[in-house]
């Protein structure tokens, strides 16, 4: 018996070690190649930073437009997917029953299993359809890409919201009801805040996915050189696509290194987004709990 | 005799199984009415019928009539046009067997339900909180720690917080479901003392497992068995001292 527990412990330790090692190796590799090239010229090329940031002059050989493109893309994707994703999770956890619940959760599971390239194709076909019917001028653009990405990340939001609300103790609901909370107050003031951490997990997953996905945007409007995204209907650049493109097409060592720099920037951007989200959640939770 | 509750032919079942069947009773407005009975006899279900909490559980089915004395009038709480369930539950406060503070600070625990009353004046809430905490003897213990999470306090303190939270809503009737069952003797006695001090201000209905406690607090006793009322007697009809305890335990 004792030996078995020991074995289990060693296995668990090895697994943890494996995860940490893989993580460190990946990060180390990226930092080794990427860190030395991170500087203003990686971002802005030959354009003066201030002029690039205000957009008064285009950036030709820097990753700045791709950086902003990814940021806008993630923002748009979250703007489209947050409400329906969390709303659907709440609906599944609290209001649906029986067959309806089964069907809906199956639909969500199916959506979750759609590969991102298929989602990209869907967007592409959608725009072809629109061109033939309602909007003859429609082209692939950042809104379309965000819409398709939103479909891609929605299941993560639905599932995490649902499971974190369902795992709250029943007594929480009973307490709220006995204190005269209406259903709406219960959701807004008790259930959603109490499930906040879980929901945040879903949001992080969704943001990470939206920031790194390449297949969807490749078919729905990303380009190599468009400058900053000009509007909701414009083409755009994005970091993951830039990395992919560089890896496939680089001509010299310097270009390759810029790819590493971009990868590193993407990693840092994701980390910053995750940090901001968790900071926001912690602040909101503190406010909700009223604890100092 | 003034009544606080009038129950006629109340039946409640969950998933088709009867929890309370065909119960009729009249509870006096004065003093504490105590529900007694073995485990599973339907005491909690009976109590929850008085603030319409049963209907929030799955598989609920119910029939019968419950009238409560609210605002000086007898009101049929299950008829749609008299009271919304939300208003009813603010007027008929409930304290549970296991202390159930919300996962937030003491202050927020009491303030949140108040703030959610439509049109409630925020500045009044602080006063009500202080009064409620004083009534349950908690003010001196927690006044410097109002922003500490409620679950860091002892079981007895948490239960007094739950009582204070209910009192802050200024209810007219208090429902107490074995409020001391999860506490040690000392905390129990403390709560019992506060309940005695409150019994002239509120009509109270309480579930108790403990005959000694029931005799100490109660003035009217209802015995339940398998969802039906066996007997209802008032304290006046009972003899004094040890004999009463014996009669009560025979009825259980
Ligand atoms: N929410 C519920 N869902 C399903 N069945 C329930 C529910 N609440 C109570 N019951 C059932 O109703 C019956 C009476 O339960 P109740 O909780 O009223 O008993 P009780 O007298 O309060 O018991 P105890 O002294 O153990 O608290 C039991 O058979 C119980 O299984
Ligand atoms: Mg009970």
Shape of chain B: globular
Major beta-sheet overview of chain B: 6 strands, mixed
Provide the helix percentage of chain B: 25-40%
Which CATH architecture of chain A? Orthogonal Bundle
What series of H and E elements makes up the topology of chain A?
A: HHHHHHHHHHHHH
Structure, explained:
By secondary structure, chain A is mainly alpha-helical. Chain A has a single domain, classed as MetI-like fold. Chain A is 76% helix and 0% strand. In chain A, α5 crosses α7. Chain A is globular. Chain B has 9 helices and 10 strands. A 6-stranded mixed beta sheet of chain B has the order 6-7-8-3-9-10, sandwiched between helices. A 4-stranded antiparallel beta sheet of chain B has the order 2-1-4-5, with helices on one face. Chain B has 252 residues and is α/β, with parallel strands linked by helices. Helices cover 35% and strands 29% of the residues of chain B. Chain B has a single domain, classed as Rossmann fold (3-Layer(aba) Sandwich), CATH 3.40.50. The longest helix of chain B is centred in the middle third of the chain and has 14 residues, at 122-135. Chains A and B meet through α8 and α9 of A and α2 and α3 of B. Magnesium ion is lined by residues 43-44, 177 of chain B. Residues 14, 19, 37, 39-45, 57, 59 of chain B line the site of adenosine-5'-triphosphate.
């Amino acid at each position: 018996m004792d030996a078995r527990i020991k074995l289990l412990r060693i296995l668990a330790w090895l697994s943890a070690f494996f995860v940490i090692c893989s993580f460190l190796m990946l990060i180390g590799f990226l930092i080794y190649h990427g860190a030395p090239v991170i500087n203003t010229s990686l971002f802005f090329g030959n354009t003066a930073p201030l002029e690039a940031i205000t957009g008064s002059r285009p950036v030709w050989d820097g990753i700045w437009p791709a950086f902003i493109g990814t940021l806008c893309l993630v923002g748009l994707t979250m703007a489209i997917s947050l409400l329906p994703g969390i709303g659907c999770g709440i609906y599944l956890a609290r209001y649906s029953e029986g067959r309806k619940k089964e069907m809906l959760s199956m639909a969500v599971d199916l959506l979750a299993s759609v590969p991102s390239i298929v989602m990209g194709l869907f967007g592409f076909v959608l725009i072809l359809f629109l061109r033939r019917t309602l909007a003859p001028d429609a082209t692939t653009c950042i809104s379309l890409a965000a819409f398709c990405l939103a479909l891609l990340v929605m299941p993560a939001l639905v599932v995490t919201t649902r499971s974190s609300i369902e795992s709250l103790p029943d007594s929480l609901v009973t307490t709220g009801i006995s204190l005269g909370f209406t259903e709406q107050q219960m959701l807004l003031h008790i259930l959603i805040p109490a499930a906040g951490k879980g929901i945040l997990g879903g949001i992080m997953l969704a943001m990470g996915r939206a920031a790194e996905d390449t297949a969807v945007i490749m078919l729905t409007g990303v380009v190599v050189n468009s400058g900053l995204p000009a509007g909701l209907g414009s083409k755009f650049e994005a970091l993951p696509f830039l990395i992919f493109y560089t890896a496939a097409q680089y001509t010299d060592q310097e270009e390759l290194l810029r790819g590493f720099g971009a990868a590193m920037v993407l990693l840092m951007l994701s980390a910053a987004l995750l940090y901001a989200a968790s900071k926001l959640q912690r602040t909101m939770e503190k406010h909700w709990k009223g604890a100092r | 005799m003034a009544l606080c509750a009038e129950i006629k032919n109340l039946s409640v079942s969950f998933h088709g199984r009867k929890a309370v069947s065909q119960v009729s009773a009249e509870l006096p407005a004065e003093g504490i009415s105590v529900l007694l009975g073995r485990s599973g006899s339907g005491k909690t279900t009976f109590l929850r019928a008085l603030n319409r909490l049963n209907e929030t559980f799955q598989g609920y089915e119910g029939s019968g009539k419950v009238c409560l004395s609210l605002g000086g009038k007898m009101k049929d709480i299950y008829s749609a046009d008299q009271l919304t369930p939300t208003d009813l539950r603010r007027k008929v406060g409930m304290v549970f067997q296991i202390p159930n503070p919300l996962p937030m600070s003491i202050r927020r625990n009491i303030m949140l339900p108040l703030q959610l009353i439509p049109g409630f004046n925020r500045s009044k809430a602080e006063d009500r909180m202080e009064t409620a905490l004083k009534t349950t003897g908690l003010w001196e213990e927690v006044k410097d720690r109002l922003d500490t999470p409620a679950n860091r306090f002892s079981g007895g303190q948490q239960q007094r917080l739950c009582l204070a939270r209910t009192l802050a809503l200024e209810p007219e009737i208090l429902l107490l479901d074995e409020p001391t069952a999860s506490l040690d003797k000392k905390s129990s006695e403390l709560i019992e003392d506060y309940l005695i001090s409150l019994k002239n201000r509120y009509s109270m209905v309480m579930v108790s497992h403990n005959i000694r406690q029931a005799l100490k607090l109660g003035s009217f006793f209802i015995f339940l068995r398998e969802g039906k009322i066996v007997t209802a007697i008032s304290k006046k009809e009972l003899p004094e001292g040890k004999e009463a305890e014996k009669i009560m335990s025979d009825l259980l």
